[in-house]
Amino acid sequence: MNNNLNPERRQMLRLLAVTGASVSIATLSPPVLAANCENDGTPLQFIPKTAPDPDPQNNDLAKYPKCPYCGMGRKQYHHSRHLVHYQDDLADATCSLHCAAIGLALNLDRGPRAIYAADFGAKTDPKPLVNVDGATYLLGSKLPGVMTAQSKVAFASQAAAEAAKAEQGGELGDFDAALKAAYQSMAGDTLMIRKKRAEKRQQGVGHDK
User: Fold this and answer.
1) Residue 201 covered by a domain
2) Bridge partners of residue 163, in order along the sequence
3) How far apart are CA 59 and CA 151, in angstroms?
4) How many CA atoms lie within 13 A of 42 on its CB side?
5) In which residue ranges of the chain is pLDDT below 70?
6) Domain assignment present for 150
7) pLDDT (tens digit per residue) in 115-130
8) Which DSSP symbol is given to 41?
């Protein structure tokens, strides 16, 4: 075997050796040494660790301040945050659609009761959560992405989404289209995130900075 591959090529080969969100969660999370538990190696290993909450969308930033997959502060990224409310009342509150996509892939046997996204078009701060069933997403616009090179932002109002498209470009779609785009960009986004975090570690800067 050729051992002279450059680090970037070796990283790409490692990504291609496995599929789906298992790549993303392994690469996004820092290594942690922990004792084995009885649920290791099963879907139960990845269940949300917070207590059941029948109304997780209410006061969500106080209850779920950190993204469980990347560790970023959800208050700082209130404009891109998502929240998955599962049928057993467990909640997965993330900083972005990218991390929500990871959670949905890991919890395949847990059905969502509702999924919420920040209304990017709202004028308030922090931006309120809206049910994605009624949201319109703007995909691939000039707006900056969170945990992704391809921006994906949700709007409660289709008219607001159309106005943003006219100004920022991109394409409109529903949540399913946005989720598909998140999975399609996962490998490239993971490489980008790893590179940025390596640079920040060298500079002694944390994730939220």
Assistant:
1) no
2) none
3) 25
4) 7
5) 1-37, 39-45, 205-209
6) yes
7) 999 999 999 999 999 9
8) T
**Per the domain annotation, does 14 fall within a domain?**
no
Sorted by sequence, the CB contacts under 8 Å of residue 64 that are 6+ apart come out as 50, 56, 74, 83, 91, 93
User: Is there a domain that residue 141 lies in?
Assistant: yes
Q: Residue 120 sits in which domain range?
A: 21-28+44-194
Rounded distance between C-alpha atoms, residue 98 and residue 70, angstroms = 10
CA–CA gap between residue 18 and residue 149 (Å, rounded): 22
* Cα(82)–Cα(97) distance, integer angstroms: 6
What's the CA angle centered on 94, arms 87 and 168, to 5 degrees? 120
Q: How many domains are contained in the chain?
A: 1
Owner of token pair 């989404």: 161
Name residue 28's amino acid: L
DSSP state of 51: P
Count how many Cα atoms sit within 13 Å of the Cα of residue 161 in the half-sphere of its side chain: 20
Alpha-carbon distance of 94 to 91, in angstroms, equals: 10
Q: How far apart are CA 105 and CA 102, in angstroms?
A: 5
- Determine the Cα–Cα distance for residues 85 and 52; give it in Å rounded to an integer: 9
Alpha-carbon separation of residue 106 from 24, 26, 41, 140 (angstroms): 11, 12, 12, 25
Q: What is the pLDDT of residues 115-173, one digit of tens each?
A: 999 999 999 999 999 999 999 999 999 999 999 999 999 999 999 999 999 999 999 99
Query: Rounded distance, CA 19 to CA 25, Å?
Result: 11
- Amino acid code (one letter) for 59: N
Record the pTM.
0.77
